[in-house]
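Batch manifest, entry 17 of 40.
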Amino acid sequence: MRLFACFVFLIGVSTACSSTTVYIVRHAEKMNETDTTDLSPAGYVRAAALADTLANRGIDSIFTTPYYRTQQTAQPLAKRIGVQVTAYPAKPTEAIVDRVNRIHGKTVLVVGHSNTILEIARGLGAKPAIAKIESGDFDNLFRVRIHRGLFRRSVTFLPTTYGQITPP
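Output type: structure tokens
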């Protein structure tokens, strides 16, 4: 009986300890300011660069808002790695934060908007140094790593960039 109790305890400990990696990006460059706009030619190049950057990172889930530009940003990666894109509501950001917080031991991509990606990172426990994503900033790639231990949770935040697009 003691052996069984130890086994159950070890199973519980191993499932309580996990690391989840969340990549958060803003959609790529868009044609115009309307909500239904497609990506611009530079945006399609950036979306391909995102696929190149994340293709070998073990992405298990891809989440985008229901807008074309977020879906088009994620599509090259989704196609390359064979992962279906799942939509989430753009607001409130708590919806995607809660969903991602229920994921353990996986690697996730979240594609959002300039006014939501920092909020999502903060909701996951990260502490970004920047206060705002400027309207012309499309190259931010944030990595949030959530480590859940037996007695504590820690979060690391790594801001990087991807897909340097040279103007024509």
